[in-house]
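notes to self, project folder thing:

trying the whole complex as one job this time. last attempt i did each chain seperately and stitching them together was a nightmare. three parts in total, labels are on each line so i dont mix them up again. if this works i'll redo the older ones the same way
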Amino acid sequence: MTQLSPVIWWVRRDLRLADNPVLHAAASSDRPVIALFICDPLVEGLGAAPKWRLGLGVARFARCLDDMGSKLILRRGDALTVLQQLIAQIGATAVWWGRQYDPDQVARDKKVKAALRDSGVDAQSFSGHLLFEPWQVQTGQGTFYQVYSPFWRAVKDLDVAPHLPAPECLRAPAQWPDSDSLADWGLGRAMNRGADVVHPHLHIGEDAARTRLAYFIDRNVADYQDQREFLDQDACSGLSENLTYGEISPGALWRAGQHALDAGKAGAAHFLKEIVWREFAYHLIFHTPHIVSRNWRDGWDSFPWSNDGTGVLRWKQGRTGIDVIDAAMRELYVTGRMHNRARMLVASYLTKHMLTHWRVGQDWFAQCLVDWDPAANAMGWQWVAGSGPDAAPYFRIFNPDTQARKFDPEGRYRRKWLAEISASAPETAQAFFRACPRSWQLSPQMARPNPLVDLAEGRKIALQAYDIKNKT
DNA sequence: GGAGATTTAGC
DNA sequence: CTAAATCTC
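result (full assembly):
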């Protein structure tokens, strides 16, 4: 019996076996499957923490494929060139992949798909990263949604594709093509001193993601709506890290949330809404790709941002002098993550009180977040800055003190991450000084700086800047 | 074109 | 109480 020609599964941000449409199609085809991960310029261009974390995810996923008698082939270079070389080498006739939606990846994938199809290769993209394809959700007028609530109402009762089981095995090719060594790629190089500190906080891989989801559904989802706002509580799912690399599917979260809701866990309703916020971010990045680089509302182009390099450095270091802001920036550096509400607070402080362009914050998050997601990061920063999607009629400015009183009433979050405010700082807070660049010359014994900006003054300045924008 | 609504607010 | 724009139907 002659063997069918192999399918190349181009693995990207879908490092999972279960509920993966492209893998399911490849496995069901009865053809040999060659899973390929390409370190292309877009991977090379990732920020330090997400690039390092991606490498750890790829390593873990390669072991999963090994365990089922298959392999993950690693190649480096321009994606189309790598694919064409491999196609020629093994006589593949198909290249299939899971779709991505940010402008850089869309542009690359369009070019790859057109070129491969021109040469007679069966090039196909599959869903799997989202619950709903961005072009399938439309307003009554046939346009895309620009406000979250109507988007939510439009999707909340839609059917989500049923779960796809992980294949038990994959047909191997007659001969495995050669592969790079992951270590040679040096994906963790830019992490420097941070890697050892951040590593214990990670949950890498499909099994870890599933375990974490089960824990969240069991322990936290029932009170999610009430508890998620508190900064020191472990009340959130923590699954953004796995979602962004595709180590778990959004469908798995959706079904678990629905099931919990059916079982009477009321907080699950809010969990479903948060999953749809991720969908909404992808809806926006697909329909308005400029959201990653320019003001989403062009009326904001006249906003008088300031350019204070010293202030920005102190924001990055967690030395603004505002405890809750500084604690959050330290949490980011030590864990590679930050509580959702804290993200809003530090973003509001940077863009409003410090009048710094949202892109500066977006770039720093893209360097530091192990759960960095192109759509969520862009939407989040523009939402807080005011230049993004939000129909609210006023210029929203968070007061960090008020917020800390509400959401960290006993100061536990601030003491957990800010060494300089405790006589004997906890290990979590001291870890920052082992992780941060030596060139910053920081120590836990240093005095707290005076606030960079007085809170009332900062608010006034931001409101004046808003007036200037509106008059221009 | 009009009515009704709009994630997390601050003073 | 403020201030009051934009979206969706």
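what i see at first glance: Chain A has 22 helices and five strands.
need to look closer tmrw
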